[in-house]
């Protein structure tokens, strides 16, 4: 198992920010902030599953072919190799905690299908 993230690492993306809160051999915990009227790419991961817990704001999660609204205290499970995204269509910040589990945890394990920021 490999976690290539380091605790305290953070990054700014076109849609917002993420920060690594904790890591272990097969787990990474991130805080993710999605700016108002922004969205992550439609993507999947080959080596990890993700668990999202919304801590503030509202959004819409695409999971496979389904879409559902999420808000504070909503939990979402994303199995590996499942297309997914989250979007924030509100005027407020959307914040969630992401727990990644799997045998390879790294930003390189992202296959993008759609991206409004041209990163496909």
Given as residue ranges, the uncertain stretches (5+ residues, pLDDT < 50) are none
Distance between the termini: 27 Å
Oligomeric state of the chains in view: single chain
Coarse shape: globular
- How many strands appear in the DSSP assignment? 14
| SSE topology string | EEEEEEEEEEEEEE
Number of helices: 0
- Tally of discrete structural domains: 1
User: In which range does the helix fraction lie?
Assistant: under 10%
Largest sheet: spatial strand order = 2-3-4-12-7-10
The CATH homologous superfamily is termed: Jelly Rolls
| CATH domain class name | Mainly Beta
Mean pLDDT: 95
Architecture, CATH level 2? Sandwich
Beta-strand level of the residues, as a percent range?
over 45%
Briefly note the CATH topology name.
Answer: Jelly Rolls
Largest beta-sheet characterization: 6 strands, antiparallel
Rg, Cα atoms, Å: 13 Å
Main structural class: mainly beta
In terms of topology, how is this protein built?
Blueprint lengths: L1 E2 L6 E4 L2 E9 L2 E8 L3 E2 L2 E3 L3 E9 L1 E6 L2 E6 L3 E4 L5 E5 L5 E9 L1 E2 L5 E4 L6
Care to describe what's here?
This protein has strands at 2-3, 10-13, 16-24, 27-34, 38-39, 42-44, 48-56, 58-63, 66-71, 75-78, 84-88, 94-102, 104-105, 111-114. It is 0% helix and 61% strand. It is an all-beta fold and 120 residues long. Strand 2 and strand 3 form a beta hairpin. The chain has a single domain, classed as Jelly Rolls, CATH 2.60.120. The chain contains no helices and 14 strands.
